[in-house]
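A protein record pairs a chain with a discrete description of its three-dimensional fold. The shape at a given residue is found from the number at the same position. Here is what such a record looks like in full:
>
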Amino acid sequence: MADSFQLEIVTPQKKVVDTEATEAQIPGKNGYLGILPGHAPLITELAVGQVKFHAGREQQRLAVAWGFAEVLPGKVTILAETAERPNEIEVERARKAKERAEQRLTSGDANVDVERALRAIQKAETRLEVAGGEG
């Protein structure tokens, strides 16, 4: 069995990652998936969360939101709506997005889209966590 697999993370704008990895954690719609070389084939919907992977001796992580992942024994392809490395995340912007969503939820306005506000909070918290700010 191989000791690594090819990992590609792609957004509509660019290829974010194209590397050999020895393991990965992916935020699936029903929870995180741990991926090792030789994993059984599967396709899953992505949730908002962190993709963590080991490439060489380093663990890397990205904030991702929505999309799909295809897992094959020798390759994992993640097609995400957004994927950001820690240095690409604007921490202040993420904090403000979280605050705005929290204010919408606590406003008492019956017209607030609660699901949308909760998704915005989750995305902002993930971005802050990946960037090293508070969650």
Q: What stands out?
A: The longest helix spans residues 114-131. The longest strand covers residues 58-72.
